[in-house]
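Running log. JK asked me to keep both predictions on one page so they can be read side by side. First protein, sequence followed by its tokens:
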Amino acid sequence: MDIRAFYDQCPVGVCVILRDRKRMDILYANAAVRNILKNKNDLEGSPFTQAWPGKDAEALARKLQGTGGVRDCSLPTPCGGRWVKLTVEEGDFEGKNAWILWATDISASKEAEERLRAAVAEADAAAEMKANFLATMSHEIRTPMQSVYGLLELIGEEKPDVKIKTMIDIAKTSASGLLEILDDILDFAKIDANKMELDAFEVPVRTLVRGINEALAVKVYGRGVQLLDDIDKDVPFVVIGDPKRLRQILMNLTGNALKFTHEGKVTIHVRKGGKHI
């Protein structure tokens, strides 16, 4: 079987171009290439850029005229709406130096790629809208809630009776809990927007842990559950980290433990070396 007969039977497009820096005439084009180009005419003898017009084909021609060699690229077809992947290699065709272009229709892949790009852009836009909404909501609720908390503290300084003071303390605890929830919401918004940044400050470990136990003591009052801490002696008094995030993590973990502990004790263990907290 001669080379033409072999190319004629190829299911993919084959286009052979004369390897000449001045002329790039087509030496051979099988039916698959003509079908891709929607050109029923015999392309042999036609310049490559005439048979396949367009800036992309002209750019490919300039590259081939420059250095030659094997290349992969994707080109739109002149008829529009279709894309073709070209694998270019140097070879011999009927005694002439040539570039052999193997052409595969990748229109379906390109369409899927464009749909994926559109879906990603839409998802990014939705995520940005959600992040903006969460950030705005957090800031808008925080302002009046801080005023409520401040007023509760002022009322508490008026020396109310025990019953009123108890109600004030409960309201302050609830307001503080809501402010922490708002902090979490704002953090989610920052994470979605890839704007979460950690601070690096000196954190007194023991003060942090015992402060969390004091803050959560109201949750174990009258429940028969002990809230303890167990900090090894070799743990440094101060570590470098983000105090707000550390407190947030320990508060959430301890709060969850208390939620599901109905008797016994909940202990915050701190060990050196990152084994566990």
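And the second, directly underneath as requested:
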Amino acid sequence: MRLPSAPWLTDADVIKPSTRVAQFYAGQGDYESALPWYQTCVETTEAHLGKNHPIVATSLNNLALLYRDQGRYAEAEPLLQRSIAIREQHLEANHPEVAESLNNLASLYELQGHYTKAEVYYQQALSVKEQQLGSDHIDVALSLNNLAILYTAQGRYADAEPLLLRSLSIREQQLGTEHP
């Protein structure tokens, strides 16, 4: 199922239909139905845009997350690594989308118990977000929280606590103290 090449077809049009259907299925926990849609998205974006386009990186990232959620870690890892490489090449190493892929790779390593690797990638993602979005951005709070959860899983409570407090402070500042 390849999309035709047409002047009216934007790059975003290539990824959206397959991704939305895949997200619909994955959101219901129907990973087997989501899988061919994510795979088609990767194939279509590569065919339409080339193997190293930033939108291909997004489709690889999405497929990798599905594999991660299915416990197919060995299949997810190279897709996330490729997503990072493409994004660094086209968007520079300190772009928020690079941070997204770094965070996802860290999450994959954390699920596998590879805490040292996970910490490196969580810290890189946090650094990129702080540089690009500012130290009080809500996405920085999420990265702080992810790193703190990793530390908690390792029993490193003294390392986790200041990160959690900073994350909470950012969320209260950005969302208000009454936000769920």
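Observation for JK regarding the second prediction: The chain has a mean pLDDT of 92.
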